[in-house]
From TrEMBL:
Recorded catalytic activity of this chain's protein: L-leucine + glyoxylate = 4-methyl-2-oxopentanoate + glycine; L-kynurenine + glyoxylate = kynurenate + glycine + H2O; indole-3-pyruvate + L-kynurenine = kynurenate + L-tryptophan + H2O; glyoxylate + L-phenylalanine = 3-phenylpyruvate + glycine
SUPFAM superfamilies found in the cross-reference section: PLP-dependent transferases
Protein name: Kynurenine/alpha-aminoadipate aminotransferase, mitochondrial
Pathway in which the depicted protein is active: Amino-acid degradation; L-lysine degradation via saccharopine pathway; glutaryl-CoA from L-lysine: step 4/6
Enzyme Commission number(s): 2.6.1.39, 2.6.1.4, 2.6.1.63, 2.6.1.7
Species, as recorded: Coregonus suidteri
Cofactor(s) needed: pyridoxal 5'-phosphate
């Protein structure tokens, strides 16, 4: 793969920070090294002594004085080694990426820690997307992605999708506007980037079938596209076996995957990961060096201690408990939807994630209904327009999350929504 063709001028211009390189050199050096280099503060001046964190399974995570000093100090921009190593082993175990054994220039699988997958997405978009670029995605899509992409001045092209995700024939139709032979010509307008949420899509709850992924991947090969696989709901797939990921089929090194611990360990700790070809992950790390420097060392160490205590088996056992919680929540929402909404709305049962995408019958656009009438009735949902490429386009959908409310609250909310819709009709 020629990765240079995908980089914006800004990303291509990024150079390693000399000071950050020294910090990382120092951290790899033996204790006999005396460094007068780093402008790091002396941890003996920090007011924090130690801490211990109770884990629900009875374990305790302990930061003694030495560990606390490390936790409160600067660390490597790509992420602390022990967390990165743990995640790389998990990715290899779950996805067996063909790129795991490639050379760096061939696109060897690499990773970095980001402050939530939101930071990863934002930095990946800023690495790849120039003003005027044609970018492919299946709308409706995550509003945070639109917020990161649209200010870049790109042209978002919608690829048709349904409850089973992006439709390959729709992608082929969109791409037929260009000749694959033009892909590598200077000033080519052929899209270079395709973004999708393959499991438990936000807002639609849609999950891509394996066959569709294979067909989309083959089209990406034909037109030399990078695929951004934004997959924070991968671990919230209710049924096994979990769907093979784009990363697992990436023979070319054209997948950039963002993972998140938000839906399974904590959203407030802000831990995400970018997995992709080393030449591209390196660019994201250079951007981290110049922006946040790194994700909180304390947070990374806390999560790393938890994961090393659990091991992959313990981690996946925890995930099984999370899945059962959201399955119960989903089933409660589907039951209440059947009870209150079946005459006035339609929906598909999600196989993953935490969202139900509800089409209100006879209502062209839900914006006003939700933002005014629903608030009066004291029920809050998200009007579908916020997930569309053009948010002013009328949208008859609303997004309902089944993550936080109790089944009883969900039932009452849908009872209120039902009354609201009937009044509006
Ligand atoms: C597809 C997709 N990709 C990336 C992210 C970012 O997750 P991160 O790893 O935590 O950074 C998300 C998070 N989605 C949401 C977040 C959120 C936060 C506060 C309040 C509301 C929120 N609503 O509604 C959301 O959908 C997502 O759905």
């Amino acid at each position: 793969m020629n990765y240079a063709r995908f980089l914006t001028a800004v990303s291509a211009a990024r150079k390693p920070s000399a000071i950050r390189m020294l910090t990382e050199l120092q951290q790899r050096s033996p204790p006999s090294m005396i460094s007068l280099a780093g402008g790091a503060p002396n941890p003996n001046t920090f007011p924090f002594q130690a801490c211990s964190i109770q884990v629900k399974n009875g374990d305790t995570l302990t930061f003694d004085e030495t560990m606390m000093k490390r936790a409160l100090q600067y660390s490597a921009s790509s992420g602390i080694p022990e967390l990165l190593t743990w995640m790389k082993n998990l990715q290899k175990n779950l996805h067996n990426p063909p790129t795991a054994n490639y050379s760096a220039e061939m696109g060897q699988m690499d990773m970095c820690v980001t402050t939530g997958s939101q930071e990863g997405l934002c930095k990946v978009f800023e690495m790849l997307v120039n003003p005027g670029d044609n970018v492919l995605l299946d709308a409706p899509t995550y509003s945070g992605t639109l917020a990161a992409l649209q200010p870049l001045g790109c042209n978002l092209i919608n690829v048709p999708s349904d409850q089973h995700g992006m439709i390959p024939s729709g992608l082929k139709e969109v791409l037929s506007s260009w000749d694959p032979a033009d892909v590598h010509k200077p000033h080519s307008t052929v899209p270079r980037v395709l973004y999708t949420i393959p499991n438990g899509g936000n807002p639609t709850g849609a999950s891509m079938t394996t066959q569709r992924k294979r067909e989309v991947y083959e089209l990406a090969r034909e037109y030399d596209l990078l695929i951004i696989e934004d997959d924070p709901y991968y671990f919230l797939q209710f049924d096994k076996p979990w769907a093979p990921t784009f990363l697992s089929m990436d023979v070319d090194g054209r997948i950039i995957r963002t993972d998140s611990f938000s839906k399974i360990l904590s959203s407030g700790l802000r831990i995400g990961f970018v997995t992709g070809p080393k030449p591209l992950v390196d660019r994201v790390v250079l951007h981290i060096q110049a922006s946040t420097m790194h994700t909180s060392t304390f947070t990374q160490l806390m999560v790393s201690q938890l994961l090393h205590g659990w091991g992959q088996e313990g981690f996946l056992n925890h995930i099984d408990g999370v899945i059962e919680f959201y399955r119960t929540q989903r089933d409660a929402m589907l039951s209440s939807a059947d009870k209150w909404l079946k005459d006035v709305a339609e929906w598909h049962a999600p196989a993953a994630g935490m969202f139900l995408w509800i089409k209100l019958k006879g209502i062209a656009d839900t914006q006003q209904l939700i933002m005014e009438k629903a608030l009066e009735k004291e029920v809050l949902l998200v009007p579908g327009g916020v997930f569309m490429i053009n948010s002013s386009d009328p949208c008859p959908y609303v997004r309902a999350a089944f993550s936080l409310s109790t089944p009883q609250q969900i039932d009452e909310a849908f009872k209120r929504l039902s009354a609201l819709i009937k009044e509006a009709l």
